[in-house]
Fold this sequence. Notes:
Bound molecules: s-citryldethia Coenzyme A
Distance between the termini: 58 Å
Amino acid sequence: MTQTKNDSVTLTDNRNGKSYTLPLLDGSTGPSVIDVRKLYSETGHFTFDPGYTSTGSCESKITYIDGDNGILLHRGYRIEDLASKCTFLEVAYLLLYGELPDAAQLEEFTKTITYHTMVHEQLSFMLRGFRRDAHPMAIMCGTTGALSAFYHDSLDILDPRQREISAHRLIAKIPTMAAMAYKYSVGQPFVYPRNELSYAGNFLQMMFGVPAENWKDNPVLTKAMDRIFILHADHEQNASTSTVRMAGSSGANPFACIAAGIASLWGPAHGGANEAVLKMLNEIGSKDRIPEFLARAKDKNDPFRLMGFGHRVYKNYDPRASVMRESCHEVLDALGKRNDPLLALAMELERIALEDPYFVEKKLFPNVDFYSGIILKAMGFPVEMFTVLFAVARTVGWIAQWKEMIEDPAMKIGRPRQLYTGATERAFVPLSGRG
Length: 435
Ligand code: SDX
């Protein structure tokens, strides 16, 4: 970041008439920031920003979002280009190392990830401790955190090589663990990774393959899976990424930090929205009930929100939703499900909502979760696995952001303050004197 021409803002405290000058810092693009790091020591005041609607928590070079214009860049490249011209592992390399890999780098990175896809056999015994009907996100929280019990040789976050090995292990093993969580829930045996398959193809094989027959890769579904992973890979300082950064700022090991990110992603306001969208579409059931649900979404007294709509940053169409909608048509056509009633209902809901003054005024557009569930259901994933797939993809973004933070010399432990409105000091009352 740079402070050009001594840019600054001046704050006047009308309680004491004092003025304070705060530096204005510029990034390479996007909004400038007011550097408030010395605000408390100079003014005795904190800033107050629950939900961090106006707060930059860190400096980063990984992802840039222009919410007003619906633009998403990873290391400067548009998501539309990456989703249509790259593989997920190319994007993973880009997020981790800052540049798109050349052929030799991609081959080496792909080989490294491929040869880390198996998990310790003991993990399969640990997984069997869950109930068969456990939500797969509960299993992912538990097993990802447990990885730190297996890899004592890569927990030293100050060792660059151990950081890199942990990153590779997480990117490689998360799909295997996700597939194991699914197989466990349906009572089928775990399917081991196959090194001759691509990252997405291997995941589909571990999910839907069975020992009773040889796996047949479906290139259309593999390409769709790979693209869905790319669309979910990273997204600036969202709730789960901020959770990973906060956990990592204390020096916690990367496996525990990613487990914290998975927990945060699970919420229906965040990564859990793709599961919530499908449940909402099934609840709406038919086009003639759309007005009823839109009315509920607009009713301040009704907690119902239109799932898959709205975004803290995008006040325009989420570019990922556009790519996802195209993929929807491709996959459903390829599966002979062009007339999927859910897709028709979703498109009608989108059409009506985008013409509704409430949604127009509040700039509520479909987000990445609105169409993803329809594709995933058509591909055969149960709705409980939707957020798990989001976590598989976002692990790359989480670990890239964690790595960037650990390697930032300015890194400090995250420790926000508060506006205290509770009881001021008062004399203690012994039990005999209460009531
Ligand atoms: C993801 O941050 C990221 O980058 C996340 C993500 C990523 O890749 O990591 O993009 C992934 O989480 C996408 C979002 C998935 N969630 C949903 O689809 C759930 C439904 N959406 C809402 O819960 C909401 O839009 C949020 C949580 C996504 C954003 O909430 P904000 O930024 O806190 O916005 P807000 O709640 O202040 O809403 C502003 C206004 C409010 O009305 P007023 O109080 O101003 O009158 O818009 C309304 C809200 O009531 N509103 C909605 C709505 N979303 C916002 N009203 C009806 N339906 C909705 N979906």
